[in-house]
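Input (structure):
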């Protein structure tokens, strides 16, 4: 291979297909990453990847497949080496493409506390992607959420590293499938510490020590690599203690490859190589940036040919890179193409496109249903819509009848349509909350009033909503966020906030409705946990639904009317105000300050969620009250449904290390399981606590398990502990890599 051919394999091209002309056109989404539109010129020496061929504009999947096949044919038949390209797409909530299933957001995935369900979903997503010629998905997000002011919290799987790690591992297994020949490469992002930036501001520095990095922020990535076999990783944008992850050999090589045994390839988050020069200012020009990234272990530049095509040859000439450095990255990319079977099968059959099947629609609805979380309930719910006892229902709020309110920032609907192609919004077919309530209760019972917008200060329509609530037997107020990146909404990438209250005048709308004395159910469609203030106290019930996807409207309505019993659990802490952030359940002993800050108490704790039935916990058993530090301890208990409805319960295992050589969290999640019990039914729940669950980073930087006393707690949330006991580990300190 020539130097130009090698450099080409380490970059990508972002082209857009114009159905009207049948040719390629400038990509309106590419922005600063745009390049020319002549494929022959851009791909004269080949190309490593094709960027977002289906998720950059509304395009018929069959036309998208035609475009992909055309580009692959130009590569296979029109370049000297004939190497096909990897096509990558976003897939955080399903394949970001017209006609694909729009699954719920990652916060919904996490709220199910059901990794097997997440694996089923990602397997379906992978099947849809492969059917249209996409080989790599830019998901899952393995960032641990610690500050809800950060706009990208809606892309995460919550605040606990074990929960996040369990979910991303399941997602990776499903997406990649049994073999990459039929599966899709999963991409863990953003490596690492991206979610704990100053003030929750996008790209801002993260001040995290290496011990906290290892035990909190790196743990989900480690689990997904070592247990899930993740084959790609994407760097984070921000800096950690002055070091940009895109140029960090410690992160990209010493940790990822040397310590964890990662065998795949690393891709740049869009523009991250250029940012080493333009933003971080650790490289004087693009050539230095390319050399720094390649040497660190960043193999492939996305989304377009910016620094690598010219920077790599220049860096070789200037002695900033060796050919071994380049060959190492090229080899990784070519091996990935071999594993995907691209050399044997570079094209895709348009007759075998498989998007949004009835089975996948049902799966999306199941996740939405299982993620619905009942935060409060004074006994009003579930409502009975089966007879004539229920009168008028006032359905109020800006998110009640807005189909876009069901989708997160990294969905096709809100990332592509509402932001760049709003004229295509009419094609989005999903029942809103209002539609679904009318389906179950009857249109004649529904009185609708929007009340206000998600954003803005206009209160002129609140009186109409108050009047509707006053004349109704029940008011259902649907409020929350508008997903949109770079300040085009209230939550999403680059849409950070200084406060965590309901945006705009929605808080006033909810308060005015509650003041009518009509029993009020508040439904949240949102991407961050809000500080709800008096709403949490005064509403008759509050339902947290996040961004539940195309089946979310019906899932919410079914929870309200008792067709389904809500059993979602919060994957994040709900704080009383922004001033106490960052607030998370597994904090250190002195996190509340001294004297303790009065407001350092969650409104809704991590793992919280109510049910329409009751559960009793009993018979806690610890297999070994005393065990060697290298042994596994078994924990079991019995859970009984003592109420009158069948429902799921999420049984959670927490551990507290009583004393250690470094400061430790007050409580940590170490196991969980979701079970279904009929009224009167009991089940035995079993957990195992082994060295990998009990290890932490010691004073010398080694991962260790220390002898000592451990408290075991089993319950329905981090603040609702039903059973507790303890055990002691004996012997010597052991290292657990």
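Output (sequence):
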């Amino acid at each position: 291979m020539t130097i130009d051919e090698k450099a080409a394999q380490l970059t990508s091209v972002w082209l857009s297909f114009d159905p009207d002309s049948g040719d390629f056109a400038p990509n309106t989404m590419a922005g600063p990453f745009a390049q020319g539109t002549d494929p022959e010129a851009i791909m004269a020496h080949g190309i490593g990847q094709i960027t977002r061929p289906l998720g950059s504009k509304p395009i018929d999947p069959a036309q998208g497949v035609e475009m992909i096949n055309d580009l692959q044919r130009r590569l296979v038949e029109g370049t000297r080496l004939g190497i096909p390209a990897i096509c990558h797409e976003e897939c955080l909530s399903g394949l970001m493409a017209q006609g694909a299933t729009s699954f719920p957001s990652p916060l919904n995935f996490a709220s199910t506390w059901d990794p097997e369900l997440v694996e089923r979903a990602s397997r379906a997503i992978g099947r849809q992607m492969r059917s249209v010629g996409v080989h790599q998905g830019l998901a899952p997000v393995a960032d641990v959420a610690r500050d809800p002011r950060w706009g990208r919290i809606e892309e995460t799987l919550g605040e606990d590293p074990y929960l996040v790690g369990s979910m991303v591992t399941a997602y990776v297994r499903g997406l990649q499938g049994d073999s990459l020949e039929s599966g899709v490469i999963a991409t863990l992002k953003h490596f690492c510490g991206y979610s704990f930036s100053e003030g929750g501001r996008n790209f801002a520095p993260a001040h995290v020590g290496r011990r906290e990095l290892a035990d909190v922020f790196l743990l989900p990535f480690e689990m997904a690599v070592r247990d899930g076999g993740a084959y790609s990783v994407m760097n984070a944008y921000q800096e950690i203690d002055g070091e940009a992850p895109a140029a960090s050999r410690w992160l990209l090589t010493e940790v990822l490859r040397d310590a964890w045994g990662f065998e795949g390839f690393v891709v740049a988050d869009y523009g991250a190589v250029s940012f080493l020069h333009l933003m971080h200012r650790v490289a004087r020009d693009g050539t230095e940036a390319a050399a720094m990234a390649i040497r660190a272990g960043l193999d492939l530049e996305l989304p377009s040919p910016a620094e690598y095509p010219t920077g790599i040859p220049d860096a070789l000439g200037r002695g900033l890179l060796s050919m071994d450095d380049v060959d190492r990255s090229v080899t990784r990319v070519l091996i990935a193409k071999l594993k995907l079977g691209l050399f044997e099968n570079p094209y895709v059959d348009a007759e075998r496109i498989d998007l949004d099947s009835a089975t996948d629609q049902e799966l999306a609805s199941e996740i939405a249903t299982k993620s619905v979380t009942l935060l409060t309930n004074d006994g009003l719910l579930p409502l009975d819509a089966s007879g004539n006892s229920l009168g008028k229902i006032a359905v109020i709020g800006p998110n009640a009848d807005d189909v876009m309110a069901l989708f997160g920032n990294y969905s096709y609907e809100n990332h592509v349509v509402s932001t760049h192609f709003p004229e295509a919004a009419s094609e989005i077919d999903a029942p809103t909350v209002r539609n679904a309530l009318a389906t179950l209760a009857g249109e004649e019972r529904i009185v609708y009033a929007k009340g206000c917008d998600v954003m803005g200060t206009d209160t002129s329509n609140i009186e109409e909503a108050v009047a509707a609530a006053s004349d109704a037997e029940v008011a259902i107020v649907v409020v929350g966020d508008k997903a949109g990146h770079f300040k085009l909404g209230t939550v999403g990438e680059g849409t950070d906030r200084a406060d965590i209250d309901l945006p705009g005048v929605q808080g006033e709308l909810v308060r005015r409705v509650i003041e009518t004395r009509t029993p009020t159910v508040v439904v949240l469609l949102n991407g961050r946990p809000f500080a709800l203030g008096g709403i949490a106290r005064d509403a008759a019930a509050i339902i947290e639904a996040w961004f539940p996807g195309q089946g979310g409207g019906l899932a919410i309505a079914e929870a309200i009317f008792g067709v389904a019993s809500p059993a979602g659990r919060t994957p994040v802490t709900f704080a009383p105000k922004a001033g106490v952030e960052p607030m998370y359940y597994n904090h250190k002993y002195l996190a509340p300050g001294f004297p303790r800050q009065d407001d350092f108490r969650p409104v809704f704790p991590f793992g919280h969620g109510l049910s329409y039935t009751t559960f009793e916990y009993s018979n806690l058993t610890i297999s070994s009250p005393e065990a060697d530090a290298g042994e596994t301890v078994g924990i079991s208990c019995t859970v009984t449904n003592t109420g009158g409805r069948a429902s799921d319960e999420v049984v959670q295992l927490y551990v507290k290390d009583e004393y250690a050589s470094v400061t430790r969290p007050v409580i940590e999640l170490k196991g969980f399981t979701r079970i279904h019990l009929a009224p009167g039914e009991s089940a035995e729940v079993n957990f195992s606590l082994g060295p990998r669950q009990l290890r932490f980073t010691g004073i010398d930087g080694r991962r260790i398990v220390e002898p000592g006393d451990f408290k075991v707690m089993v319950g329905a949330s981090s603040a609702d502990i039903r059973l507790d006991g303890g055990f002691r580990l004996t012997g010597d300190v052991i290292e657990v890599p």
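Notes: Residues 61-78 form the longest helix (18 residues). The chain is about 30% helix and 20% strand.
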